[in-house]
Design brief:
The chain has 64 residues and is mainly α. Helix 1 packs antiparallel against helix 2.
Amino acid sequence: MALSVSSVLILGIAIFLLTRKSGLKVSHAAVCALFGFYLAGTTMAPGIRAGGDMIASLVSGLNL
């Protein structure tokens, strides 16, 4: 678990620095994908999934 959290933190910082310095490129997208895979294995995953489900239900409930 400690290795997974460290990876998430390092990849999160890498994503932040890469997107602030320049536009999102293929290599940046690969880092984002790795970040997502590592994040899915943490204890934060159920909360993120619940937040995503809530946002999806809010968007689907909009009458435009």
